[in-house]
Design a protein that fits this description.
Strands 3-4-5-6-7-8-9-10-11-12-13-14 form a twelve-stranded antiparallel β-barrel. A two-stranded parallel ribbon has the order 1-2. The chain is rod-shaped, with a radius of gyration of 60 Å. With 413 residues, the chain is α+β, with helices and mostly antiparallel strands. The chain is built from six helices and 14 strands. α2 runs antiparallel to α5. A hairpin with a 4-residue loop joins β8 and β9. 17% of the residues lie in helices and 42% in strands. The two termini are 115 Å apart.
Length: 413
């Protein structure tokens, strides 16, 4: 009740001391109001009961020069029993009661936009602290160290199984007879090359073919192709393309061979067996953009060993009667090439020659492969041979020939 009476008395004092003014425009009214507030502030500043240092703070005087705002602390201090008003609060309270039209905002509006201005506080510029991430050690996982030894070996090969059927009627004007034939072949290679000086090549060839013949009353099935051959080369590099080479060649057959309507065998396993060891040089062929590849072996020194297990065949293969073996020395050459004409046509040729300067032996194997797809192909095999160490034939002399065409399954790996 006392506070309410105090507010009413102050309102009366300010009301009596205020002189009504009329201004021509809003600008003059604002200037007059500001002048009145400064005059009242100056009068209260020099009252004897007010000490000047109480209003020396710039922050305390700031509300007078800022847009006029209603502060809740002023009315709160005026209404409480033990509250006291500073000279600045008295001036603000007088304006609130006498000139409420000058109040432009409230303390609540200021609090929404930011913290209220507090006297006798020193605002410090906030320091900017940049939190940099600490360097982290990369996560390490245990690693198994595997040491791979270089592999100087290369393994490859190919095989095929092919068939041929021929029908000739009994009244065919040229004669002939119907027959069925098949041939199978397997070639395995294991080659060592340490990319420095040493090279060791190994090749194993196995081929076996059969055919039927109605005119042969003794043999319903006879061999048409029969080969078991191993070729080994151990080379020491001389230049980029040339190697000093020791070559070992051994070949025989699997089955017995017969002529039509004859009981006596013309060949058998280990009859004959040919072993040829030679010392010379090898040349590596990589021609026509590596479409023509292979080796050429030239050996001025060669040893040839021929063995016949069946004594009845000794003289047929150039041995003395009653002897199983023959030894002689001479020179030898071997040409082994592959020529890939296109992706589907391949020519493989092997030319072998040996001479003891008393006899000569030459073999020329040619295989033409026409590949239709990955598994189906047709092959043309032509194999002429010359050997003057055998008995001379009345019709062909020392020349021999084996040829066939087949169609079937083939695969390389």
């Amino acid at each position: 009740m006392l506070g309410l009476m105090l507010l009413m008395s102050n309102s009366g004092v300010y009301a009596r001391s205020r002189t009504p003014l009329r201004f021509q425009n809003a600008t003059g009214l604002l200037v007059q109001n500001y002048t009145d507030s400064l005059r009242n502030y100056r009068d209260s500043l020099y009252r004897e009961e007010v000490s000047a240092p109480a209003l020396c703070s710039n922050q305390d005087m700031a509300p007078l020069f800022l847009p006029l705002t209603f502060y809740k602390t002023v009315s709160h201090n005026a209404l409480v029993m033990d509250g006291s008003l500073s000279p600045l609060d008295e001036q603000l309270l007088g304006v609130y009661l006498g000139r409420p039209d000058m109040v432009r905002g409230t303390q609540s509006d200021l609090e929404k936009s930011g913290p209220a201005l507090v006297a006798n506080t020193v605002t410090e510029r906030p320091s900017i602290v940049v939190n940099q991430p600490l360097p982290q050690e990369p996560e390490t996982k245990p690693v198994d160290v595997v040491v791979l030894k270089p592999n100087f070996w290369k393994f490859s090969g190919d095989y095929y199984l092919q068939f041929l059927q021929s029908y000739v009627s009994s009244n065919w004007y040229k004669g002939g007879e119907s027959n069925y034939s098949m041939v199978g072949s397997l070639t395995l290679e294991a080659n060592y090359n340490n990319k420095q000086k040493v090279k060791w090549d190994n090749k194993l060839e196995m081929k076996l073919g059969f055919q039927t013949s109605k005119s042969d009353s003794l043999h319903k099935l006879k061999t048409s192709s029969d080969l078991l051959r191993y070729t080994g080369k151990l080379g020491l590099q001389a230049t980029k393309k040339w190697y000093y080479t020791f070559q070992l060649l051994a070949y025989s057959q699997f089955m017995r061979g017969y002529k039509s309507n004859q009981r006596g065998a013309l060949s058998d396993f280990m009859s004959p067996l040919n072993v040829n060891a030679s010392l010379g040089m090898d040349y590596t062929v990589e021609w026509l953009k590596k479409r023509l590849t292979g080796t050429i072996h030239l050996a001025p020194i060669a040893y040839n060993f021929k063995y016949v297990d069946r004594l009845a065949l000794s003289m047929r293969y150039g041995l003395d009667e009653g002897h199983h073996s023959l030894h002689d020395f001479g020179s030898q050459f071997t040409l082994d090439l592959k020529w890939k004409f296109t992706e589907n046509i391949l020519w493989q040729t092997r030319l072998y020659g040996y001479t003891s300067y008393e006899r000569a032996e030459v073999e020329w194997e040619n295989t033409f492969t026409f590949q239709f797809n990955k598994y189906i192909s047709t092959k043309l095999f032509v194999y002429p041979r010359f050997d003057d160490g055998t008995s001379r034939d009345v019709d062909h002399g020392y020349w021999q020939l084996n040829e066939f065409v087949s169609l079937g399954f083939s695969y390389s790996f």
